[in-house]
Amino acid sequence: MNQLQKEIRRRRTFAIISHPDAGKTTLTEKLLLLGGAIRTAGAVKSRKAEKFATSDWMELEKKRGISVTSSVMQFEYNGYKLNILDTPGHQDFSEDTYRTLMAVDSVVMIIDAAKGVEPQTIKLFKVCRDRGIPIFTFINKLDRQGKEPLELFEEIEDVLGIESYPINYPIGMGQSFRGVYDRMEHKIEWYNDRRERQVQDLSEVEAVTDILKGKLDDYTLSQLEENLLLLDEAGNTFDFEAVTSGKQTPVFFGSAISSFGVPTFLDHYLKMAPDPQPRKSSGGFVRPDDKQFSGFVFKIQANMNPAHRDRVAFLRICSGAFEKGMTVYLDRTGKQLKLAQPQQFFADSREMIDEAYPGDIVGLYDTGFYQIGDTVCASKDTFNFGALPQFPPEHFAKVRAKNAMKQKHFLKGVNQLAQEGAIQVYKTPFEETILGVVGTLQFDVFVYRMQAEYGVDLDIERMPHQIAKWIVSREDAEALRRNANNLVVSDYKDRPVIIFENDFSLRWFTQKHPEIELRDSSHNI
Ligand code: G4P
Q1: Fold classification of 3-168+241-272 (topology level)
Q2: Confidence class of residue 344 from pLDDT cuts 50, 70 and 90?
Q3: Best of 16, 17, 24, 26 to mutate for ligand 1, by most ligand atoms within 8 A of CB?
Q4: How close is the Cα of 24 to the center of ligand 1, in Å?
Q5: pLDDT tens across 397-416, in order?
Q6: Which residue of 86, 195, 418, 422 pairs with 94 in a disulfide if CB–CB is 3.0 to 4.6 A?
């Protein structure tokens, strides 16, 4: 095994997805603590606070008390190198969140034991399932009374449509929560009265409930016995292939706030989760251990530091080793670029780096070279990873500059902010600008940034529309445009998109035009 292969094998690049408040920040923090990347609890939140303080436009975030942007954190644990890509879980999240999921090899889904599967989790989950990437479930807040584990499995299977396999099972819940039983390794992770963690291996013949006799009340014990038996006899069998292809999710129970179950979760996760995987390109699959360096830009963030007006392009490395100062080609323009000042992101800092490997995320200073979805490669005219899909926006608004003299700045701002990918821009046949966003907060961010960064005051007019569909055939689009009742617009690549007010009007349309093929995203159009 060469150096490159060794580095690939120890990398795990993943995102944590959840509905707001399920415990994503808390779990991230506990993982960073385990890896020694931070020393005190609370550091992740204070890091957020620091970022607010240094960034002007994030004033807006501060006011609303949420995080609009997602970041990347790298740390080491037990010889592994982990890259966590943060995805904001707030209701008003953006396309950025979805795109981040294009750059990971697996996902950790957190579910609040009391709330079960929530709407935001469903949305994010669907993106992961469509990509067929492995999903690991962490059911959190077991220190509080929540739904019964069996009910939660059923919910995961029914609502999300994925098989579940509990790797561990909780011993008690809420007040009586004592730890977890590891079904895979036949071990008890147990917390004594002083809340000290103890791990007890069981012999082949020992039943978990025998060990626990006298330590749990009779009811909890008999429930545990019954449920474990039920799972063994009627539950799913563990299927590694199915896990790898995202058809079965290993389930873990724990309590992030007290770290219950977190170390075991991480150990199992690291063993089961894939290292960086080959990626489809126009020239076939690109293997991570191909010597030739390649990667793609999945996120651009402008004005990270308002004093410098800088943009950072986030590049996911797909193959080969990255070296500081290397020259690469940008597939879209054919231009040669020097990758100067590359940065990597750690829990509490960004640092210049000299080398990085597949699975890693590198931040590149960008003076306007990059766009989301760009492929960079060490040689010219080789392959590209294809455009990243655009996700269907759910809110629309017409925008224009209040002052017509500012039209040039307006267009520049719209273009640059659209390139970051948090908003989608459409043009009507009358050259009006329509914004489409996944979460309405993006409108506020857009208005604010256009003013703060481009000096343009906007008139913004919300539209009643909710659904955008890409029209596969251009002839169909032309025919539809002739009827003024249809709102057919063009996306940034001039692909036709039809916008509907609601499900009812969409259904009515598809019944009337069963021959017209519509797509949810621009993927493969
Ligand atoms: P998020 O990033 O997914 O939005 O969730 P976050 O980690 O911020 O957690 C949301 C709330 O849930 C926080 O409480 C957090 O302390 C709590 N929490 C996280 N994990 C657990 C757990 O295992 N058990 C219990 N009981 N609570 C948990 P908060 O009051 O909103 O914030 P804070 O004041 O504690 O920071």
Answers
A1: Rossmann fold (3.40.50)
A2: low
A3: 26
A4: 8
A5: 999 999 999 999 999 999 88
A6: 422
Please say if the pLDDT value at position 230 is more than 50. yes
Up-side HSE of residue 36: CA atoms within 13 Å toward CB? 6
Which range, 54-68, 262-276, 289-303, 474-488, is most confident? 262-276
- What residues flank ligand 1, with Cβ below 6 Å? 18, 20-26, 89, 140-141, 143-144, 255-257
Write out the two tokens for 387. Answer: 């455009």
Q: Among residues 301, 308, 331, 340, which one has the least CA distance to residue 445?
A: 301
* Per-residue tokens: 378: 């060490």
pLDDT digits (tens, 9 = 90+) for 114-137: 999 998 888 889 889 988 999 999
* Separation of alpha carbons 284 and 305, rounded Å: 38
Count Cβ atoms within 10 A of the Cβ of residue 519 and give its class: 0-12 exposed, 13-18 middle, 19 or more buried. middle
Among residues 347, 260, 319, 334, the alpha carbon closest in space to that of 77 is found at 347
Q: Round to whole Å and give the CA distance between 462 and 398.
A: 6
DSSP states of 393-415 = P-EEEEEEESSGGGHHHHHHHHH
Asked whether the whole model's pTM tops 0.90, one would answer no
Fold of 395-519: Alpha-Beta Plaits (3.30.70)
Stretch 131-154: mean pLDDT: 96
The residue whose CA has the least distance to atom 31 of ligand 1 is 21
Question: At the topology level of CATH, where does 279-377 sit?
Answer: Elongation Factor Tu (Ef-tu); domain 3 (2.40.30)
Give 15's strand partners. Answer: 85, 107
| Atom nearest to 22 CA in ligand 1 | 3
